[in-house]
Specification:
Cytosolic carboxypeptidase 6 isoform X2; alpha+beta; six-stranded antiparallel sheet; Aminopeptidase; protease; 22% helix; hydrolase; carboxypeptidase; 11 helices; zinc ion binding; 583 residues; Immunoglobulin-like; single chain; eight-stranded mixed sheet
Length: 583
């Protein structure tokens, strides 16, 4: 193995020590000269990269060692490296042998991510190819082993613990966000030890437009720990939503001021550390012992929070510290406990609203405590120096995935899934400030579903003008329009008959022949002459038609069977009158 190490040192510029491997080519023992296809080349000398050492075990197996955090050798979990110079269909086994945190999500089925030049989208290695176990060959330490098969020789393959989010990507996002939008303000709070900017982004509408009401201030801190890259995706999703034209974002900008520090530890992110800064300090354990030289970000943020807390026009209301968790699933909150019951009840309102609006919220992982060893965290220290109405939380999101209520198993997060969490936070703030009475109820919070009416262009058809003519009255020819009616006389029981119009008329004549009585008419009458009909068949109507009779029935006094009784009485009266006339 010593021959292999000497050969590796000749081909590696910065191999060994506390640095990352740089283009390390793994040759088999006894091989010399130019590297061939299949002699894998490892590289981690790029931004957010982490791989400290590689040992060749056999032709197909390699032991990989994570580089510890600078000045803090006990923290080893984040890895990010590339592999090239492979053969098609070459199969290998990678063993990551020095993970410092044995209790992690690899026990729950989490697998590393991989992408290549031809497949630039991150994908998780299948679970049946990943193993997490105690290895007797590595002093009973936990080892993460995964098998992989390379499909293309010319591709460069990259492996990582979770989705990387680099410092360069963060700067590009801020440049795109703040240069074209008027509702954002970008300023530099401080510079890190390696002179990288620690920036503050303020998102709100024009403060001069809110003279009639004061605005609450929400401060969001992200990427305190470099290896917790999902917190940067959540923060970006929140910022992208707040500057959008969505009705919820417009309402929030009018009533809330968001002050966001997207990256508190730029040096650690750039160097590929897991939890520490360049000097090995954990910023989320240093709030109660801030050093002007070791913690420039905390030195700048602490007075900013105190000034906001004293403001009467824009008072500080909430502080969120975004993190990613390596041992739990879903989204959850770490909060504080207070002796004042009313303060504690106000403190748990926001997590309850978050549980209602996020399907991946894990209420079983939510915790409120006052642990002494967490006294240096942001949520514990800031609530002790700020006013009682200010709520401080740690928002935790899993590095792996969340449990779905409908389907068993863990559903892995994607980059879009982390963006969605940021948008859900914005919606929770809308409901929270409506509940607190800061935002009036009834404001539009959803985009209109009505489609805008599109105007249709009408095409006018050109018609030829009509010729002008002199107006003359048109001759009207009236034709003799006659209808020929032949009515059959149907004698009813009352002595009358029903005409075609349905009107009941009494027959005053008594004869059964063709004669007519007073006010009566023939049995077969021809009221109108049809064209061509003889004149002798025209029968003139009586000059004195029969007097109409009206029968009134009071329906309000009717009972069951009363209608038949009233009708029978009416028929009897009509019969008596007809008999008198016949006499």
């Amino acid at each position: 193995m010593s021959d292999v190490e000497e050969t590796e040192s000749e081909d590696s510029d910065t191999e060994g020590g506390m640095g990352n491997v740089n283009k390390m080519i793994m040759r088999p023992p006894g091989h010399s000269g130019k590297a061939k296809k299949g002699h894998i080349c490892f590289d981690a000398s790029f931004e957010t990269g982490n791989l400290g050492r590689v040992d060749l075990i056999s032709e197909f197996e390699y032991d990989l060692f994570i580089r510890p955090d600078i000045c803090n050798p006990r923290l080893r979990l984040w890895f990010n490296f590339t592999v090239d110079n492979v053969k098609a269909d070459q199969r290998v086994v990678f063993n990551i042998v020095n993970i410092s945190k044995s209790a992690n999500l690899f026990r729950n089925g989490m697998t590393p991510l991989v992408k290549s030049s031809s497949k630039p989208k991150w994908q998780r290695i299948p679970r049946d190819q990943v193993f997490y176990y105690k290895s007797a060959q590595h002093q009973n330490h936990y080892v993460l082993s995964f098998a992989f098969s390379f499909d293309r020789e010319e591709d460069v393959y990259q492996f990582a613990l979770t989705y990387p989010y680099s410092y360069s990507r963060y700067l590009a996002h801020l440049d795109n966000l703040c240069t074209r939008l008027t509702c954002t303000k970008r300023e530099t709070l401080a510079t890190s030890i390696q002179k990288r900017k620690i920036e503050l982004v303020t998102i709100t509408s024009n403060l001069e437009d809110s003279q009639d009401h004061s605005r609450r201030v929400v401060v969001v801190l992200a990427r305190v720990h470099p290896g917790e890259s999902p917190s940067s995706f959540v923060c970006q999703g929140l910022m992208d939503f707040l500057v959008s034209s969505h009705p919820i974002a417009q309402v929030l900008r009018n009533y809330v001021v968001f002050k966001i520090v997207p990256m508190l530890n730029p040096d650690g992110v750039f160097l590929g550390n897991y939890r520490s800064t360049l000097m090995g300090a954990d910023l989320n354990r240093s709030w109660n012992k801030i050093s002007d030289w070791l913690h420039p970000a905390l030195v700048a943020i602490k007075p900013m929070l105190k000034n906001l807390d004293k403001s009467s026009r824009t008072p500080l209301d909430c502080v969120l510290d975004l993190h990613a968790h390596t041992n739990a699933t879903g989204l959850f909150v770490y909060g504080n406990t207070y002796d004042d019951v009313y303060r504690y009840e106000r403190h748990i309102v926001l997590p309850k609203l978050l549980a209602q609006h996020a399907e991946d919220y894990e209420i079983g992982n939510t915790m409120y405590n006052q642990d002494p060893h967490k006294a240096g965290t942001a949520r514990r220290y800031l609530c002790s120096i700020l006013k009682e109405h200010v709520n401080c939380y740690s928002i935790e999101v899993s590095m792996f995935g969340y449990n779905r209520k409908s389907t068993p198993g863990i559903f892995p997060y994607t980059e879009e899934g982390y963006y969605r969490l940021g948008r859900n936070l914005a919606r929770v703030f809308l409901e929270y400030y409506k509940l607190m009475g800061i935002i009036p109820a009834g404001l539009p919070d959803q985009p209109s579903t009505k489609r805008s009416r599109q105007s249709r262009t009408r095409r006018r058809v050109l018609r030829e003008p009509r010729p002008k003519t002199s107006r003359k009255p048109a001759p009207i020819h009236l034709a003799s329009i006659h209808e020929y009616f032949q009515e059959e006389t149907e004698m009813a029981a009352s002595g009358g008959y029903r005409s075609m119009s349905g009107t009941r008329m009494s027959q005053l004549g008594t004869g059964t022949g063709s004669g007519t009585g007073v006010g009566g008419c023939r049995n077969r009458s021809y009221r109108f002459r049809s064209p061509g009909a003889p004149l002798d068949r025209v029968q003139a109507l009586s000059r004195h038609p029969a007097e109409p009779r009206l029968t009134i029935i009071d329906f309000n006094q009717l009972t069951r069977g009363g209608l038949e009784l009233a009708t029978s009485k009416n028929r009897a009266k009509v019969a008596r009158k007809a008999a008198k006339l016949n006499r």
